[in-house]
Amino acid sequence: MRSTTLLSLAAASLPLALAQDDSLTSSKRGLCYVDPEENTQDTDVWDASDSDLTWYYNYEASPTDGIDESKLQFVPMIWGLPDSTSSMAFYNTVTGLMEQGYNITYVLGFNEPDGCVSGGSCIAAEDAAAAWIREIEPLKDQGVLLGAPAVTGSPMGFTWLENFYNACNGNCTTHFIPVHWYGNFEGLASHMGQVNGTYPNMTMWVTEYACADCELEEAQQFYNMSADYFDRLDYVTHYSYFGAFRSDVSNVGKNAAMLTQKGELTDIGAWYLGQQATGNKPKGGAAQVAKFAGWAVVVASVAFWTVL
Ligand SMILES: *[C@@H]1O[C@H](CO)[C@@H](O)[C@H](O)[C@H]1NC(C)=O
Ligand SMILES: *[C@@H]1O[C@H](CO)[C@@H](O)[C@H](O)[C@H]1NC(C)=O
Ligand SMILES: *[C@@H]1O[C@H](CO)[C@@H](O)[C@H](O)[C@H]1NC(C)=O
Ligand SMILES: *[C@@H]1O[C@H](CO)[C@@H](O)[C@H](O)[C@H]1NC(C)=O
Ligand SMILES: *[C@@H]1O[C@H](CO)[C@@H](O)[C@H](O)[C@H]1NC(C)=O
User: Fold this and answer.
1) Backbone angles phi, psi at 180, to 5 degrees
2) Residue (of 36, 29, 56, 72) closest to 247 by Cα position
3) Which residues fall within 8 angstroms of residue 99, CB to CB, at 6 or more apart?
4) What residue range is the signal peptide (predicted)?
5) I want to staple 149 with a disulfide (CB 3.0 to 4.6 A). Which of 28, 110, 281, 297 is the partner?
């Protein structure tokens, strides 16, 4: 019942106009970094002087070699459950980075803990709460703002998060809420409306999103509308498009990729960096075996990419 109301509310507030040229740039934009494997030169695209991006995450606690920290602020993530129930590995890595002079002001919680197929970290809410209280919560006292676990965009995501907060019993502070979405723009807007309705006082980071397996025109239109939407919403403070990889290895369809099969910026890639369209058309590859099948399929872990 509740979600029906929220869906119609969100649908009523869809933007009427697409992005204008003057909205090509945005300080909210960051990089969701995916290892380019042998194409190491692709990493240089994102922190180039003509890139507009301001921050990045890489699904790990430690920064990526070759990304300029003075250009892109690193945001550590605890991807999955630590090996032991006494681990302080994440806490120690993050505080170690701060001691080395890294400007760590945010961390991200578990990646798709409600997802137990490719890409999800598949964690019981109780285990996540215990790990949170032990080694994430204390980072708050170091002045770090804490991002809630980034659940999938499916209904089970809401359930998982509710179970997590219940298991925390008031002992887990989350300063902002990351959101993932794969689908069309209307679905994205209504999902965000539902997140906002459920957690009305939390700012939002959209840390993975794309029109997965869409036609090129549709993927570009989705990109434009969502960038415009995020830029206009005060409660969205950060967003990172998925994704920063070549079209022939994309697991969300070739047209969502920011790089062509040759590593050149696509139109979406160029727009995302605050630049003019390139006209480069993304092509798929024979190796593109992973098929995206809607929100129930969880994408985007480092492990998944290794399998590819
Ligand atoms: C550290 O990052 C925060 C948040 O992005 C920013 O406001 C602040 O200016 C940065 N501090 C330094 C010393 O770069
Ligand atoms: C939460 O904190 C309270 C007060 O410090 C404590 O009594 C309780 O055991 C904690 N709960 C969990 C699940 O850690
Ligand atoms: C988000 O929720 C807040 C608090 O309920 C509300 O004031 C605001 O209008 C909502 N934002 C949108 C865009 O729906
Ligand atoms: C949200 O913030 C408002 C205004 O500060 C407050 O009245 C309300 O109780 C808060 N709601 C939740 C769910 O924390
Ligand atoms: C997307 O936005 C760019 C830049 O504002 C514009 O040139 C392009 O025509 C738009 N494309 C679609 C499909 O809306």
Assistant:
1) -115, 140
2) 36
3) none
4) 1-19
5) 110
Kind plus residue range of the DSSP H or E element containing 271: helix 267-272
Q: Is 221 in the pocket of ligand 5 (CB under 6 A)?
A: yes
Look up residue 214 and give its amino acid: C
Residues 183-201 as b/e (b if ≥16 CB within 10 A, e otherwise) read: bbbebbbbbbbbbbeebee
The number of the ligand nearest the C-alpha atom of 75 reads 1
Report, in angstroms and rounded to the nearest whole number, the Rg of the chain calculated over CA atoms.
Answer: 18
CATH number of the domain to which 135 belongs? 3.20.20.80
Residue 112 lies in a domain: yes
Render pLDDT for 96-135 as a digit per residue (tens, 0 to 9): 999 999 999 999 999 999 999 867 999 999 999 999 999 9
Domain assignment present for residue 140? The answer is yes
Cβ within 8 Å of residue 142, ≥6 positions away: 95, 98
Considering its fold, how many domains does the chain have in total? Answer: 1
For 128, the domain range is 30-282
Q: Which of 271, 275, 276 to mutate to test the pocket of ligand 5 (most atoms within 8 A of CB)?
A: 271
> Does residue 211 lie within any of the structural domains?
yes
Q: Whose CA is nearest to atom 2 of ligand 2?
A: 171
Query: Is the whole-model pTM more than 0.85?
Result: yes
